[in-house]
Design a protein that fits this description.
By secondary structure, the protein is of the alpha/beta class. Helices cover about 35% and strands about 25% of the residues. The protein is built from 13 helices and 28 strands. The relative contact order is 0.11.
């Protein structure tokens, strides 16, 4: 199957070169023009897509070649580009940076190559002049099939850009074209914290910052050139990944400042199967939504709100009671922490052993493959799924029902898994192994029938 999808990938020379700021500037400018714009992020990150979503008003999707086969990668890019005039893909780290220090596997370059997406390289020109050409030359030469077709200079002064643009044209001709610049804009800085950028909902005056960026993009970026390049992308080729619709269930999904890390496609997968997602806040709501047959507790920053979470005793009790009664539940990272005995000494739900504490550094960071040690809610013993860990906090009892193994061969036990529960630090994407979401959904359907049977018995 083939699908037309105008698209470009905004790559960077390294982390911190301004990819996210540039991506948000381009997205907001295109939306302000009235274009239907799709957004994507290379890699497993949650926070950058939140910024994309706030800009375009729809969920941003992740593209990750550790999680997905090439076919699934192309399918998700096509599915999430449907109805869009153009899609903007934000890269991860440096363009060629992948699973290891010496590999391009799962890099932005690999995503661009597999999807045949034209690449625009972001080069930070602060403190440099003609040397930016050496940077461009190096990125072009490292891999002859780089796909780099354009370059944007970030932190570049209006006085310097014309001369640098002429030099780029003279040096590279039609191979790579200058597509504008962004000057230093301290008033539009997006702040960071230990897991990356501060989440979109926490940035003060975010929309004002984005509109300032968009106004600058209209002045100093060649948006028409970017659109022309995007329209040159060849059609995507793939076989659809189907999740056949089943009978409806209601699944409660925690969504607030403490729990906001979800892959958009995970939520859409549940809806495609037939779920009604019922969002609630463990911070402010009194109790879980009623009449739900499943619970999804995503990651986020519960460690920033232990007092508020711990004081909401009616919510803690409602979740504790539901899980004790066998409600199917997925709890990832922050969601897992919430189910333990305590976070930073403050009592939480308490259905799991262990206390959570700040380890002061990234702990068990990176891509892993999760393999089940026993049959559980999501899979049978021996079955596996690609996953990712990214957290500073740890638990005195992180679980031992899965084995997490890195590409290097290092491994450790993790997660608590029962017939009705997965709870652990690793995050995973449902499209990395769709059987996991099918099995979760089947458990939710079983829960629905169990309660229907109970009601019928009581009526008799």
């Amino acid at each position: 199957m083939e699908c037309s999808a105008p698209r470009i990938l905004l790559a960077g020379t390294n982390s911190g070169c301004g990819k996210t700021t540039l991506t948000c500037a381009v997205l907001q400018a295109l939306v302000n023009r009235g274009l239907r714009t799709g957004a994507f992020k290379c890699g497993p990150d949650y926070i950058d897509p939140m910024f994309h979503s706030r800009v375009i008003g729809a969920h941003s999707a992740n593209l990750d070649l550790f999680f997905f086969s090439p076919n699934t990668l192309n399918y998700l890019l096509a599915a999430n580009s449907q109805g869009c005039d153009v899609s903007i893909v934000e890269g991860v780290m440096g363009f060629y940076d992948g699973l290891s220090l010496t590999s391009t596997q799962a890099s932005s370059y690999a995503v661009a190559k597999e999807t045949r997406t034209p690449v625009v390289l972001t080069v930070n020109a602060r403190g440099a002049a003609f040397s930016v050409l050496a940077t461009i030359q190096g990125f072009l030469a490292l891999e002859p099939d780089s796909g780099i077709r354009g370059v944007i200079l970030n932190q570049c002064s209006p006085m310097s850009y014309p001369a640098l643009a002429r030099a780029i044209r003279e040096r590279f001709g039609e191979k790579v074209v200058p597509l504008g610049y962004l000057p230093p804009m301290k008033e539009c800085a997006l702040e960071s914290r230990h897991l990356g950028l501060v989440t979109a909902q926490e940035v003060e005056d975010l929309k004002q910052k984005l509109n300032l960026l968009a106004a600058q993009a209209e002045k100093s970026l060649d948006l028409e050139g970017l659109l022309t390049l995007a329209r040159s992308a060849p059609p995507l080729s793939f076989e659809p990944v189907n999740l056949p619709r089943q009978e409806p269930v209601r699944i409660a999904v925690a969504m607030d400042k403490a729990f906001c890390f979800y892959y958009g496609d995970n939520l859409r997968a549940l809806e495609e199967l037939g779920a009604e997602l019922v969002y609630f806040s463990p911070l402010t709501d009194e109790r879980m939504p009623e009449n739900c047959q499943g619970l999804y507790l995503g990651g986020g920053y519960p460690e920033l709100y232990p007092g508020q979470l711990g004081e909401n005793r009616t919510m803690l009790e409602s979740i504790r009671t539901a899980l004790a009664a066998g409600l199917p539940c997925i709890a990832e990272c922050g969601g897992f922490m919430y189910l333990t005995q305590a976070i930073a000494g403050t009592a939480m739900v308490g259905v799991l052993a262990g206390d959570c504490y700040d380890n002061g550094k990234l702990t068990r960071f990176g891509y892993v493959t999760l393999t089940a040690r026993k049959d559980n809610l999501l899979c049978r013993a021996g079955e596996s799924i690609p996953a990712h860990e990214f957290h500073h906090w740890d638990c005195t009892a992180p679980g031992g029902d899965f084995t997490a193994e890195k590409v290097s061969g290092k491994s450790w036990a993790c997660a608590v898994a029962t017939p009705t529960l997965y709870a652990g630090f690793p995050h995973f994407h449902f499209y990395a192994n769709p059987d996991f979401v099918r099995n979760f959904y089947a458990a939710c359907r079983k829960e629905k029938h169990r309660h229907a049977g109970n009601h019928e018995t009581r009526r008799d």
